[in-house]
Amino acid sequence: MDNEFLKAEKILNKYKQEHVLRFLERRTPEEKTQLIDQILSVDFEQLIAILHKKDQHIEDNSANITPIRYEDWDKYDNNEQDAYTQLGWELIRSGRVAVIVVAGGQGSRLGHDGPKGTLDIGLPSRKSLFQLQAERLLNLSRRANKYIPWYIMTSPENHQETIAFFSSANYFGYPADECFFFQQNTMPVLDHDGKLMLTPSSELRLAPSGNGECFSSLKRSGALADMKKRGVSWMFYYNVDNALIKVADPSFIGVAASHNNPIASKVIEKTNPDEKIGIVCLKNNVPAVIEYTEIPNHLLLEKDHDGSLTYHAGNISIHLFRYDFVEHHADTELPYHTASKRMDYVDSEGNLIRPNAPNAYKLERFIFDFFPLAPRMTLLKMKREEEFAPVKNKEGEDSPLSARNLVLKLHEKWMINAGIPVEQLLSRAIEISPLVSFSGEGLDL
Ligand code: UTP
User: Fold this and answer.
1) In ligand 1, which atom is closest to the CA atom of 210?
2) Fewest 10 Å CB contacts: which of 308, 339, 341, 368?
3) pTM of the prediction?
4) What are the tens digits of pLDDT across the range 148-170?
5) Does the Cβ of 241 fall within 6 Å of ligand 1?
């Protein structure tokens, strides 16, 4: 213990983290041991390098950015659409497709008590986001006569709670042995002066370090090896908080597989420059996403002759990754982005501080930083109203209520297409179970 303490002391002095030393002096022996272990596992040189590059993302993005080419699902004719969809079904049927949901985020803007996937957005069925996703998978699996393996990325903060939620709901009818829960990495949180932050339980404050940890975490957990054993060749990746997600959409899988680029991604038309979604573009001639927080103003507002936004391919985090690409890049080090957040902490005297304004840097890797590693990718433009109902905020835009309304609106459209008279639908909130229809099919009277 003494030896370890001396090592930690030396490191903390070297990296100007003396406040942690002062804090350590007042801890119980058990707390000390735990905190020293954490300190010894921190890569301080890496933290310094990340903070040093903190402002570079925005500057980098002002150079060599050009629009990227995409295909439009609605511009394919019926034969093309059928052929792609058939190919997707064949891949699902032959066990080539796996699904990954990234559910390790903290959902700090939403402030829901529990993992985001457990949220009930207020649909008539009161189903949680996880249940909607499970039932969409069940629908496809029944039709394909093949279960699609489902890999669920959690964080140390919400892992047990997520598993408990699935298990208490009997996995929503999905087979438990087709659900693989794996935990992502975390990184220390730093204050605006680069100091480590402490928690009331005498630990270093750590936070899940972004969905870009997905591939390395898949590998570390054995999930990647599990996919290989099953013969998976495509991974369908999505965010837990999209209430409209068409999990393992066969049509998208067919398009991706027939183009056979290492990555495919669904995009939607971005019409409002202020909308909080990133844009897909070319950066130095390779595919890239610029996050909405990092887009320089001149690119954000740039318009074509017809008045439309030049950078309008909006990223909605629905991707397909080819297995060999993920295997190849599982250990590739992505850059960290820093997000300034408000976070409670304990000072060196042990007082709990609750700041009113952002005071901390959260360090995150983003999944789309893998895009530049693919020489080419397939982009498929889809209709926003059929694909995207994000749940980010407590109220207002991108909230549970806005997502609920988008789901009900789409279901109303399905019913109208199926021949139900509009008058019968007026002011009625009717939800279609994913067990009945995946994307509007099978509702004809
Ligand atoms: P967001 O960036 O919207 O973050 O995540 P969030 O955690 O849900 O919400 P805020 O920013 O704290 O309010 C987009 C997707 O990436 C996942 C989230 O669970 C969500 O599905 N994610 C995010 C992770 O899996 N791990 C992370 O470390 C961060």
Assistant:
1) 28
2) 308
3) 0.95
4) 999 999 999 999 999 999 999 99
5) yes
